[in-house]
Design brief:
- The complex is a heterodimer.
- Chain A is an all-beta fold.
- Chain A contains no helices and eleven strands.
- By secondary structure, chain B is mainly beta.
- Chain B is globular, with a radius of gyration of 13 Å.
- Chain B has no helices and eleven strands.
- The chains are: A mainly beta, B mainly beta.
- The interface between A and B is medium-sized, with 21 and 20 residues.
């Protein structure tokens, strides 16, 4: 199993600013996944973060907007840059699939004014 | 057509009722996941299935690989079961395809 601590749990930010979300896993994992969940929608994968290499971004997501760091096998950060109200979402980090059960952080609920 | 379809989209029931949520998919899969998301946003894994049936407490999940269909059942439902239930299928490349979720409300 894996326990993922994610913070902040929620934040209210001003347009044009940036916010960094952190995820700490209680065990070493090769891949971590970052998701966005817009209001009333299902999860959308932003990128896959591997330790020691650049993150792999899904279509529609770019590194300049969502830079990701993965300095070791238990930690990752996602930054939402130059925020606009359209970035208001829940952001979640995850481990799995490919290792059985899926594990998620508690989610970061971001509101951009 | 979505590759993973859940039904119903919304479900309201009385405490004690037997609940069924359905998930149909159109792609080949290596596993199917049922997850629960509470209003705060956190997501908890309920089941991972590749065949047959699994039971955990009042929750039962079944999958029919030939029919590409899975069901999540809740027996003796309780208001604390109120949440969004999400089906996700995992393809052979470990890619996840997400259903839209079923919002369940159990009234006391």
């Amino acid at each position: 199993s894996a326990v993922i601590s994610q913070k902040p749990s929620r934040d209210i930010c001003q347009r044009g600013t940036s916010l960094t979300i952190q995820c700490q896993v209680d065990s070493q994992v090769t891949m971590m996944f970052w998701y966005r969940q817009q209001p009333g929608q299902s999860l959308t994968l932003i990128a896959t973060a591997n330790q020691g290499s650049e993150a792999t971004y899904e279509s529609g997501f770019v590194i300049d907007k969502f830079p990701i760091s993965r300095p070791n096998l238990t930690f990752s950060t996602l930054t939402v840059s130059n925020m606009s109200p359209e970035d208001s979402s829940i952001y979640l980090c995850s481990v799995g699939p490919g290792r059985g059960e899926l594990f998620f952080g508690e989610g970061s609920r971001l509101t951009v004014l | 057509k979505n590759e993973v379809e859940q039904s119903p989209q919304n479900l309201t029931a009385q405490e004690g009722e037997f609940i069924t949520i359905n998930c149909s998919y159109s792609v080949g899969i290596s596993a199917l996941h049922w997850l629960q998301q509470h209003p705060g946003g956190g997501i908890v894994s309920l089941f991972m299935l590749s065949s047959g049936k699994k039971k955990h407490g009042r929750l039962i999940a079944t999958i029919n690989i030939q029919e590409k269909h899975s069901s999540l059942h809740i027996t003796a439902s309780h208001p604390r079961d109120s949440a969004v239930y999400i089906c996700a299928v995992e393809d052979s490349n470990y890619q996840l395809i997400w259903g839209a979720g079923t919002k369940l409300i159990i009234k006391p």
